[in-house]
Amino acid sequence: MGISIKKGKSVSIDSIGLALKMVGVGKRYPATIAVDNVDFEVYAGEVHALVGENGAGKTTLMKMLAGSFNDYTGAIFINDKMVRLSSPSIAKSYGIGMIYQELSLAQPISIAENLLVGRLPRKGLFIDREKMVREAKRLLKTVGLDLDPLLPIEDISQHEAQLVEIAKVLGTNPCILVMDEPTSALSREEVDRLFAIIAKLRNRGMAIVYISHHLPEVFQVADRVTVMRDAKKVATKNIDEVTREEIVHMMVGKSIKELYKREERQMGKLRLEVKGLSRYGFFHNIDIRLHEGEILGICGLSGAGRSELAQVICGVEQADEGSVVLDGEPLDGLSMAKRVVRGLGYLTEDRKLEGLALRLAMDDNILSSVIPQLKQGVVYNKKTGWPKAEKLIKELSIYPSDLDRTAGNLSGGNQQKLLLAKWMAINPKVLILDEPSRGVDVGAKMTIHETIERLAREGSSILIISSDLPELVRLADRVIIMRKGHFTKIMEQDECSEESLLLAANTEMIV
Amino acid sequence: MNVAQKVDTRALRTNRFSKVLSTVGIYAIAALFLLLGILLQSMGLINNFMTSQNLLNIVDAVSLLGIVAVGMAFITYSGHYADLSAPTTIALTGIVSVELLRYGFISAMVGAFVVGLLIGVINGVVIGKFKANPIIWTLAMSYVTMGIIRFIWVNKQIYPDIITDDVRAVMLFDNIYRFRLFNVLSLPLIFMLLLVVAGQFILKRTPFGAQLKITGSAKRTAKFSGINVELMVTLAFVISAFTTTVAGLAITSLSRVGAYYNGAGYDFRAVTAIVIGGMTLAGGRGSIIGVLGGTLVIGLMNNIMTLLGVGTFSQDIIRGAIFIMVVGINAKTLRSMGRDDT
Known about the structure:
The complex is a heterodimer.
Chain A: E1 3-4, E2 10-11, E3 18-28, E4 33-43, E5 47-51, H1 58-65, E6 73-78, E7 81-83, H2 88-93, E8 96-99, H3 111-115, E9 122-123, E10 126-127, H4 129-142, H5 158-170, E11 176-180, H6 188-203, E12 207-211, H7 215-221, E13 224-229, E14 232-238, H8 244-252, H9 256-259, E15 270-279, E16 283-291, E17 295-299, H10 306-314, E18 321-326, E19 329-330, H11 336-341, E20 344-347, H12 351-355, H13 362-366, H14 371-374, H15 386-395, H16 412-424, E21 430-434, H17 442-457, E22 461-466, H18 469-475, E23 478-483, E24 486-492, H19 498-510
Parallel strand pairs in A: 5-12, 5-13, 8-11, 11-12, 17-22, 17-23, 20-21, 21-22
Antiparallel strand pairs in A: 1-2, 3-4, 3-6, 6-7, 9-10, 13-14, 15-16, 15-18, 18-19, 23-24
Helix pairs in contact in A: 16-17
Chain B: H1 16-42, H2 52-77, H3 86-100, H4 105-128, H5 134-153, H6 160-163, H7 167-178, E1 180-181, E2 185-186, H8 187-205, H9 207-217, H10 219-223, H11 229-255, H12 266-276, H13 288-308, H14 312-336
Antiparallel strand pairs in B: 1-2
Helix pairs in contact in B: 1-13, 2-8, 2-11, 2-12, 2-13, 3-4, 3-5, 3-11, 4-5, 4-11, 7-11, 8-9, 9-11, 12-13, 12-14
């Protein structure tokens, strides 16, 4: 079996070294198996894309390589030598460089100091500034940046910071480079520039693992691709032997047609009206008209004011201007408790801190928003809520299904389903969902999506805030693009596709 | 096929048996201390353990501590650790009631509760609404109340029978502690039992208790579930202030003197009883029945140590060591079950 390298050359295994070989590696967390018996190989001089849905195990696999775990199972070989990567410093010493989604640069200090952190050139007791600047300039050149190395990080743009991050890792002379979604903050030209750098590094014989959600990029940059699903490896393919549809099929275990099968829904009367709502500094003059049985999507980068908007609508924070009307009745000035009773629910983005009480049992969690509704006189007995809780657990196939199970011991996907169950318990007229399927496995995601659609069919109105474009395309009847606290565009369902939303979001980013 | 189906169940073993054991356990420990007392007496190391007088002494001491602990348990349960202003609240409500005895018994009672509940409301609002650190704030509150006592009464101790000539009022006041129903059941014991029953009911069987549980376990989650967290926390501090005032009246009646030093040490002893009784400092866990068990253990232990001739300061050291041990074991158990409380 030979692997093909772009530009038409085909090289056999013998002539190219195997930079990384992971054999039967696995990692389990207390309640879930994150990586299950995976084999993964990367050659020197290869860009190897690693794709999969959120929670498929890609990031855990790469963290293993970065030395984040000392209890992984299986064997890892680097340049044919078996190694035990039990700490980040050991991993670094074997030449493994990691570039994460979240930037790891220290804000107030200079580019040069960030680039050379831990190995600043010294002259006696003091830092050798001249040498530092010279070395930093050389590193910046490798990523095509021409910046003053003495500028503080906070003064450069985010995409420049991303490139500085890459330069910083390159400065440690890695032989294996892992990039986790390196393009999420970059514009198109910057992406092209990054790809040119990646090609150069590959031609120099570096082994590159490229993690991405964005399949067009994968086809542009990768030589081979490995697909993961549910903690397991599905397949490794040469990039010119697969189509985009096949990769998606492997990622989700279903064909695209099955995935985007839509059922017709009936839209009813106006349910929720938001008029000129503002919270200074967060969002301004927002209008929303949400009908019975409608699913309305809000798309925007985090920091665009999406969650703040949801918090004002649900009554946790107060508006500075404007009003919220539910079924013709104004809600302004009412506490969240009173709005919950009227059928307005808010599923928070952060399920661990703001969604669930992880130390409490499942029944406590599911019923936490309906305690005042379930009381009989002054008495509250959670047993009266059990039939409801059991029904919801069954509907959402939450596993394990015992009511007295501690929520914190469930897997991420089941916790997220539990959170949805908690808000279904209030019999919502309007449900605001903030990233309802972030970081969950594919199975849970399917269940959550089907449940949201069912809720809408049964007459609930759904406002869904998401950074997950396929999710919005699949679920929403209309999508509002939000940027810096303003609604900038509304897209009807027939104009919504992953590409058009991405384009809209990208255009908005440049403007 | 789905990851969720292959859940690793090792971490999930907290069953009903362990729950029951943790409540019954504290009573088993209390029984052990009782046996220890009997054993020490039979060995001739202590005298007068199993006498009706000594057992009554234990019950009386447990009653006073229990009254404070039951209320303070609501604060612990809400995730706000403890009320360090309890001792000075005891002193202040006591001294106020003695001072107001000159206007009659009823005025004395009303005055004490007004002052006590006011402290509770201030604590609750500052900590619940303005998010002050409960330990620092109640510590500050204890200094303020102590300052008020020192400012108004200087270092004076005031005696009910000197304050007023109203013999009936003085007698009623004395009887708060001394009256015994059927010559056995003291009023503090009756109060404590009533408070335990009411507290257990409120904590486990009312909407307030259920919402307090969520608040204590995950404050931000409570807020985003439509629970009025500020009100819950305020109510917890008011409940604590209420029972502390009851204890203040009983303790002052016992000593027959209103003075700044009444109630000293009740803060730490109450927290120890609460924690030993199975209510973790992290909040949202435990029961009032457990707290009663913890109070019993503390009461028996104190009694045996006193009979053994262990000095007051040595007793403090031992109680402190036990507190640290229990908190340590508690944290370790939770961590090993994968439920770190940080």
